[in-house]
Write a structure and sequence with these properties.
Length: 59
């Protein structure tokens, strides 16, 4: 098993913005490419992370 971190080109940087007073959890993820994924609740938060980490199609 290789424990070396992935090269910088393979990393994804996300900014997390949360509403501290929201119940349930609410916020948005902003990808390094500027795309925004809003979410409400833990399941949508997890989905937003999965979508952000999904391979992007070239083009």
């Amino acid at each position: 098993m290789n424990d070396d971190p992935p090269p910088a080109a393979a990393r994804l940087r996300l900014a997390l913005e949360l509403d501290p007073n929201a119940d349930p959890l609410r916020g948005r993820l902003v990808s390094d490419d500027g795309s925004v994924r809003e979410f409400t609740g833990w399941l949508e938060f997890a989905r937003a992370i999965e979508e952000a980490a999904a391979p992007r199609s070239g083009g």
